[in-house]
Amino acid sequence: MNDFATRRxxxxxxxxxxxxxxxxxxxxxxTPAASPDLSAPSPGSSAPSSPGPEPRQAVExxxxxxxxxxxxxxxxxxxxxxxxxxxxxxxxQLSTALEAMRRNKEVGVxxxxxxxxxxxxxxxxxxxxxVTDCQDGSRSGQADAATGDRKTVGSPRIPIHAQMVRDxxxxxxxxxxxxxxxxxx
Length: 185
Known about the structure:
Largest sheet: 6 strands, antiparallel
Helix content: 10-25%
Radius of gyration: 16 Å
Structural class: alpha+beta
Order of helices and strands: EHHHHEEEEE
Mean pLDDT: 77
Number of strands: 6
């Protein structure tokens, strides 16, 4: 078992699974809630050829910080969404998230609750990485934006496979794709 599987789970603002993975759940995806810090994490070093603990820690930090930070973006002016989200995500996830945020704003859906992120593996290969996560979304879901009435409730074991890329220009890791294989982990 690697050191990521034995770490204590981290809790975050709102379940973004549906928002950031348009089409992976029934109904409309939620919009994120507020979060105080929108800046992306800085990696500890430039692209090493053999990943050690520093690149893995940078990947894990970028992934875990992606969730709460991306929640704040839809609560800011819409003309700032692209730049703010680009600090956290790269295409195709960037475009997917922006489209979902616009759609959710149009249909009046918002998220509620919190998520526990449980990283079970990180594989770094140069400027690309894969994060395997088993999130607990049982205290989160979608609610009507006007009334706050809850429409859905998440699962306690949501498998997520995240592809991450390190930007050559600034050295930051960004989420490039989130995959939800289904089932439980």
